TrEMBL record, chain A:
This protein's UniProt keywords: Signal
Signal peptide stretch: 1-25
Name of this protein: Peptidase propeptide and YPEB domain-containing protein
Superkingdom per UniProt: Bacteria
Automatic annotation (TrEMBL), chain B:
Keyword set, alphabetical order: Hydrolase, Protease, Signal
Alphabetical list of InterPro entries matching this protein: Chloro_Bact_Ser_Proteases, PDZ, PDZ_sf, Peptidase_S1_PA, Peptidase_S1C
Presence of the UniProt keyword Signal in the record: yes
Protein name as it appears in the record: Serine protease, S1-C subfamily, contains C-terminal PDZ domain
Signal sequence annotation: 1-23
Pfam family, one: PDZ_2
Biological processes annotated in GO: proteolysis
Any GO molecular function: serine-type endopeptidase activity
Domain (PDZ): residue spans on this chain: 265-350
């Protein structure tokens, strides 16, 4: 009993003592001597007096009051400092053309200022090549802003003009252009302050300098990124960052620097090759999206299999390869991974590595897009894979996040849908797979919706034209139906059109075939003109010649039907990108023609026989046709790119 | 020559005539008037001198109770494209000491998003402050520093606050280096419905960003308001939380540890005239009832008009809140409504809004 009481007293004393600690601590530091500079300074950066970039190898003085604006890569840097009354900018660009200082000096001097408005020009007073304290040679340009001469008389302009000096260096395979502009009056009174700033630029980055602030250090390490609106988290790779606003429904992450910039140019051969084949039809990086709400019975595997089926239906099997299709073990998430290699641009194939995740009642997709060249670099591939696999679901979601219906599950895509021209009796019965351009939402410009969505295309050689169009989403098929007044002879129209097609280089060398057929129904003539590219032949051709490159998403096979009734010409054209030309898409195309009516007649049902024409009959020995002749009912340019 | 002399004489006579009249007037009138005028001017100058001295003395005394408040605003996301050793998210305001043991009153919007609150006194000493209580609706906060023997400001009684009273605003406008800046003006108006919450006191004393939370003092050196907001780009249109609301906030805090705000659960819509400040007898239109409303849907329906509370007419939500402010949860009030031009009363027991 005695011990119990003692115990209680001890505990009570301990509690009183513990409770008094915060107030004692507060009293200790709270004698009114708090230094707010210490309090508000960033502890990590408090001692920094220099600023620079490890990647682009430079550093310079950082005044304590400086405000720095920088590009993502920190290859463009702008700093304003009130204590020096100066603004400093530094631009670093790759010296791809291997310029010398003399080349740049010549180029700068020979730039004819007469070609510019006066306010773009500057008054240079010095244009010289000099050497700095580190022994680096540079172009020194001293100049003034002509603005003051416009408003002020000579002496006043000289008095008030800012003092501007450029120093242009070439080092580390980069061109560095430093420009410092100091208030004129301040410069005249404190030239040594200007010299302090301008001479502080060093074209090197000292990793051991504790006073040096690396401007990319906010992204130089792995960081956790959490999307608190949609409930997920991912570990962002060093030197990667998110694009756009945070907490977006579709959040994109991308590398700030290229492989060469981070790791040096030891794989320069790859980079050089990429230089002229660097066209990318995709957005490199990783994109996380909340797609929609999930049904209780839905699994990630079902979802992924649906996507694979869609791919198989809509992509030519020669332009893709499914590398991985497997269930993933990522914590307790229901995840499925599908990795596909696309050869739609054979010179620059790419990988699409997708994680399908279902959790928290939602469907999430995490998609990594990587060029194969980079995928083959071990470090880059590892960076993508690590980040992809770091995806996790969290319970931190916006309180407003509710049900997001997947509209694809609400529509019966086989339901019929009619499109037709208004003035001409020309219509086609399609399925709902065909989308027309939305006219129910004007993007907030309701007053102008007629203007923005007036579905009309104009072609010369034809008047009173009218057109309607539609497209399919998963395979980029396009349908264009056009009618108009054209008094030219039908055979001449076709001849001119086909002649132009036959003149294209790819047709001439056998990479594409033109097939022209015609049929007659009563007194009405119908032409069918098919332009189809030979994927194998193009592959071979491009393989043999490094300078030739094709994007199979941009090259389209084209199927045109033309009918002339009286002086009215009716054309219907379906284009299918070469990458998307499959039995399924060709069948979709065929269905369009089979369900088309012109002036109330379905000509397809009445055609008994197509007569195939020899292309030589369209090849004119005289090359005197005008451009307008073949652009009359279709833009020829669409054929190639 | 003769003609010229004659002309000159005529002109001289014509122009000298008014001088005589003017001279006569001064001469007759009025040595006394001049003396009175001079006396008045001297008296005015002496008074002005006295007032100047009084204002200077007052500002000097009150300054000891006025503080500057600074801290980092934690609600802003740092932007990666900007770097500076200077913290970009500092925000500051003003405050006034109300107890000798370090309690300071300020605006809620000054300290609400601050990571840590720091107070800088008139003598330049800086203290870490603790947030005791804040209320977003009334826009007041009570903080405390660990310093004793401070000189608190005295609160004026609401009845002594009159339109036309000379007032002095003291605070930290715009730049932290401008701490304890004083500006003088008058009370331009009372009971101004600036927002839909409570009414404000209007003054033409200069109030700028950074003055928020600072005191508005009358010539007796007493607090008549807490400077809170003003119209940008217009002159002399500034507003302070009136001292009766400050007292309400402090009384409730001291008694209950929080504001015990009354609640009816009836949602109202203001009429457009009230929103534009046009005098009107129109009451507040009932929009909906919350689940825990003090009346039932049998008693009240959408479209009914609240005409008065305990016989006091109300046509704005700010005025409605001002009436409820005089009560405590649990009090009974009579709400007078009208429907189809027929008035009816409902006696309700006010609930507490948390």
């Amino acid at each position: 009993m005695k011990y119990k009481r003692l115990c209680i007293i001890l505990v009570a004393c301990l509690l009183v003592f513990t409770a008094s600690i915060p107030s004692y601590a507060l009293a200790l530091k709270d004698d009114g001597t708090i230094d707010l500079y210490e309090v508000f300074s960033n502890k990590k950066d408090r001692m920094k007096t220099e600023v620079g970039s490890r990647i682009f190898k430079w550093s310079m003085h950082l005044p304590d009051d400086a405000i720095v604006y920088k590009s993502d890569k920190v290859n463009y840097f702008n700093m304003y400092t009130e204590s020096y009354r100066s603004s400093v900018s530094l631009e670093v660009i790759k010296n791809e053309q291997k310029y010398t200082l003399e080349d740049i000096l010549y180029s700068k001097q020979m730039n004819n200022p007469d070609s510019y408005y006066w306010y773009f020009s500057q008054k240079e007073f010095t244009f010289n090549i000099e050497q700095d304290a580190q022994g680096e040679k540079y172009i020194r340009i001293v100049k003034m802003d002509p603005f003051y001469d416009y408003y002020l008389v000579d002496d006043a302009a000289e008095e008030f003009s800012s003092y501007i000096e450029n120093r242009i260096y070439i080092k580390n395979d980069y061109i560095y252009n430093l420009e410092i502009s100091m208030e004129g009056k301040y410069y005249r009174e404190n030239p040594e302050m200007f010299r302090k700033l301008v001479s502080s630029l060093i074209l090197d980055y000292d990793e051991n300098n504790p006073y040096l602030k690396e401007l990319s250090d906010s992204v130089s390490e792995h960081r956790d990124y959490e999307n608190t609106s949609y409930g997920w988290r991912i570990t962002v790779n060093p030197y990667w960052k998110e694009e756009g606003i945070s907490n977006a429904r579709v959040q994109h992450f991308t590398a700030v620097y290229s492989h060469e910039e981070i790791y040096g140019s030891d794989e320069s051969d790859n980079e050089k090759e990429a230089d002229f084949n660097n066209y990318q039809s995709f957005r490199e990086g990783i994109t996380v999206s909340l797609v929609s709400s999930a049904l209780p019975t839905e699994t990630s595997e079902d979802w992924a299999q649906e996507e694979i089926e869609k791919l198989q239906q809509n992509y030519n099997d020669k332009v893709y390869e499914v590398l991985i299709s497997e269930k993933m073990n990522l914590g307790n998430m229901d995840a499925y991974r599908v990795k596909v290699k696309y050869n739609t641009v054979p010179k620059n194939p790419y990988i699409v590595d997708t994680l399908y995740v279902i959790g928290n009642g939602y469907k999430y997709s995490v998609v990594a897009n990587i060029p194969v060249k980079k995928y083959n670099e071990a470090k880059t591939r590892e960076a993508f894979e690590t980040m992809l696999k770091s995806f996790k679901l969290t319970n931190q979601r916006s309180k407003y996040l509710g049900k997001i219906l997947d509209p694809t599950s609400l529509i019966n895509w086989n339901d019929s849908k009619e499109i037709k021209t208004k003035k001409y009796n020309f219509n086609a019965n399609l399925t709902k797979n065909w989308h027309t351009y939305d006219s129910f939402y004007s993007g907030g410009y309701g007053y102008y919706d007629d203007y923005y969505y007036y579905d009309t295309y104009y072609y010369s050689g034809m008047s009173n034209q009218e057109s309607v169009s539609a497209y399919q989403k998963d395979n980029n098929m396009n349908l264009m139906m056009m009618a108009g007044f054209d008094t030219r002879n039908f055979d001449d129209i076709i001849k001119n059109y086909v002649q132009a097609l036959l003149e294209t280089d790819e047709v001439r060398i056998g990479l594409a075939n033109i097939e022209v057929s015609s049929a007659t129904v009563g007194t009405v003539n119908i032409y069918r003109i098919i332009t189809e590219y030979d994927l194998d032949a193009i592959n071979q051709f491009a393989k043999a010649d490094e300078t030739k490159s094709y994007d199979y998403n941009s090259i389209s096979n084209q199927y045109t039907y033309a009918v002339k009734i009286g002086n009215d010409l009716y054309t219907q054209t379906v284009t299918i990108p070469l990458a998307n030309t499959t039995d399924h898409t060709k069948n979709e195309m065929q269905q369009v023609w089979e369900n088309t009516q012109i002036v109330g007649v379905n000509y397809n049902q009445r055609i008994t026989n197509w007569n195939k024409h020899n292309n030589s009959k369209f090849q004119d020995t005289q090359q005197d046709f005008l451009l307008e002749d073949f652009s009359s009912f279709e833009e020829l340019a669409k054929l190639i790119y | 020559m003769k003609k010229f002399i004659a002309l000159l004489m005529i002109i001289t006579v014509v122009f000298v005539q008014p001088l005589a009249v003017f001279a006569e007037d001064t001469a007759v009138g009025t040595q006394k008037n001049v003396e009175a005028l001079v006396k008045d001017i001297i008296e005015e100058m002496l008074n002005q001198g006295k007032e100047d001295q009084q204002v200077a003395k007052l500002v000097d005394e009150i300054n000891q109770s006025v503080v500057a408040i600074i801290g980092r605003n934690k609600s802003y996301r740092e932007q990666d494209y900007v770097y500076s050793k200077m913290p970009s998210n500092l925000q500051h305001g003003s405050g006034v000491v109300i107890t000798s043991n370090g309690q300071i009153i300020t605006n809620n919007h000054v300290v609400k998003d601050m990571e840590e609150i720091y107070v800088v006194m008139y003598d330049g000493k800086a203290y870490s402050a603790q947030l005791l209580y804040n209320d977003e609706e009334i826009d007041l906060a009570l903080i405390k520093i660990n310093r004793s023997e401070l000189k608190p400001v005295e609160l004026e009684t609401a009845d002594n606050v009159k339109v036309g009273n000379t007032v002095i605003a003291i605070g930290t406008p715009l730049y932290f280096g401008y701490r304890n800046s004083a500006s003088k003006g008058i009370i331009s108006g009372l009971n101004r419905p600036v927002d839909q919450t409570y009414t404000y006191l209007q003054t033409d004393a200069s109030i700028n960003p950074g003055n928020s939370g600072g005191p508005l003092i009358n010539m007796s050196g007493k607090l008549v308001g807490i400077n809170t907001l003003g119209y940008m780009f217009y002159s002399g249109m500034n507003f302070a939380i009136p001292v009766e609301n400050v007292s309400y906030f402090l009384d409730h805090y001291n008694q209950f540890g929080r504001i015990r705000r009354c609640y009816t659960g009836i949602q109202f819509e203001e009429n457009w005239a009230a929103m534009l400040g046009i005098p009107t007898d129109q009451g507040l239109r009932v929009v909906t009832l919350r689940e825990d409303a003090v009346v039932t849907s049998d008693q009240l329906q959408e479209g009914d008009i609240l005409e008065a509370i305990d016989g006091v007419k109300t046509s704005s939500i700010a005025a409605y809140n001002e009436i409820l402010k005089r009560h405590l949860p649990g009090n009974q009030v009579t709400l007078t409504f009208s429907r189809d031009n027929e008035d009816f009363d409902i006696k309700v027991t006010l609930k507490e809004r948390y």
